[in-house]
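Hey everyone, long-time lurker, first post.

I ran two proteins through the pipeline my lab uses and got sequence/structure pairs for each. Pasting them in order. The first:
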Amino acid sequence: MKRNFFLFTVLFLVILFAMGRSSHAQAVKPIELKLSHFMSPIHNLHVDVFTPFSKAVEEKTKGKVKITIFPGEALGKARDHYDMASTGVTDLAFVIHGYTTGRFPLTSVIELPFLIPSAKVGSKVIWELYDKKLLNEYPGVKVLSIWVHSPGHFHMAKKLVKTLEDMRGLRLRSPGPQQTLLLREFGVSPLTMPIPELYQAVQSGMADGAVIPFSGIYDFKLSDIIKYHTIANLYVMSMSLVMNQNVWNNLPPDIQKIFEENSGVKMSEMAGASYDNCDLKGIEAAKKVGATIYTPPAEEKKKWGDRSKSLPDKWIADMEAKGLPGKNLYAEVQRLSEKFLK
């Protein structure tokens, strides 16, 4: 009898222990999140921003959150990433605002020509603008951070661009609507496509080249086919990392805090610095293959600025016609750009 009672007690304790371990395992099961982007796994954003961010969140939450990154359009096309996040196809998504025409009207101010001198400066500008002026343009998502890439230049396969006259009739990849308007002012035929499609377009002869930052020469291995580079500082493009709003709302406050501590202005500055550093790699790659890198004289650059000076006025008029504060916002970007340049 005593033996049976002893065995029953041991069995009972074993069951309790197993139930406890099972409950503990359920309690510590991590929150698994998907982060989608459309760049390659060697792109500077994947290496310098998204991977360190994901690891930091996992470490700071002590494994309560696990983020799996899906690069290279694995979950969807580049243009669809905002909707993928807002509808829950992915939990987090990388978005380039200019890929969806008209969706972020005020945000597009940062892309007006000859306005931003570097990714570092532009990323500080756009984060401050977002926090104060742009919140209403992002329904359905929590914007974790927002930044810009480094200034875009002319990159050609077979012809060096030195003057306005050299641009006439060229077919160049344009990343977005603001850059399309600028290229048309220069007599260029713009071809709108996401940057992952650029290599094929140039290689096939569909495009003569592109306007992109030097970082793109490195990130997308374009030094194989691009042989002429003209320093122009034409524009920058804005981009962001966003999270599905419902996913954000359901995170515990302590985990939300960790996300915010590792994104926001910290990520903005990190991304800006990454792009500026990657520009140097692009220039090095161009030099390595003996490409020509040309800087136009000041008087020629002035002609380019004069030719495009109507674009800010047009943007302001379009915004004001929609009841949006275009004039004040453009002036604010100019002020902030000068402030952060110092």
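...and the second, right after it:
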Amino acid sequence: MKSSIKNFKFKNYFKNNAKPFFIAEIGVNHENNLNLAERIIKQAKKGGAQAVKFQTYKAELLASKISPYYWDLTKVPQKSQFKLFKKFDKLNFDDYVKLKKICDHYKIIFTSTPFDNDSAIFLNKLVPFFKIASADLTNLPLIQLIKEFKKPMVISTGACTINEINNLDNYLNNNIEVSFLHCVLSYPTKNHDANLQFIDVLKKKFPKRIIGYSDHTMPDKNMLVLTEAYKEGAQIIEKHFTLDTLKGKKNNDHFHSMDFKDLQKFFENLKFIKTLYNKNNLVRNVLACEKKSRKNARRSIFTRGIIENQQKIKIENLIAKRPGTGISPLLINKIINRRTNKKLKDDYKIKWSDLKKL
């Protein structure tokens, strides 16, 4: 999927695709190595992602040297935001141009999150849509600049209140395609904090916006977190992504990232879920697979004991038993008080021809 940076619209993707738009968040898992970045891009494409996303920043423009950590120190033993970000900000603008060309080669969309104005201005030449991090939801100078580019904006909402999201929604005009991603800004997010039902809250609160999910939970083996997010209505899904051989590694975001096998499992889940729904049978017609069961598992009217010739049939002479190839129990009142025209043995499936007319 070679991306055109002009006139990109998520709504055009959703017109032709039932599955969600998946953004594989490579972030800084490239470790300043373009060869590693290319290997991760290739695996993201193999897994089925529609886009890969990086992070474009310089530590000096992102965090002061006194900024404290907000992550799990057992996974990332660095207490300084500045020092951590400085470790992975070695790519220059020319490197991102190379990454864009690599993505074009593998037919996957390239995008990156800008964390400063210079990065945003540069990326505008490369990306079809902008991703804004949760922590920048209130960074109006950056958002105002990106707004002027008039490209779709995907905005994570981690650690935000509904009022803050609403204020930003009012600030952004309807001429720009905007997506709000439910997100929990905790690395990693515990499963009981995922709060996936908020996806539906956002869909109802902002019906004109595209609603999605940016995930920070540890990848579960069956990809149930992402599958549930999809079932809650997430149209865009983003999750940190890494090489299969680096998954679970400490430092960077490897420790809570998925790999291509996880992504393939997620799409397998969606394919399976699709088989469970049949929009062509909303009136509940009998399915072809049910016809044999309908005939043999339903009941017919049988004799309960011997019924003599000319005997007047009472309710106690009858019983409903399987299979349903005879007279339906729905018609039992049309049999009661009629007389037989022959002797009927016990456990006999009654036919209309066995009965005299009233």
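Reply from user beta_strand_b:
Welcome! Quick read of the second one: The chain has twelve helices and ten strands. The chain has a mean pLDDT of 95.
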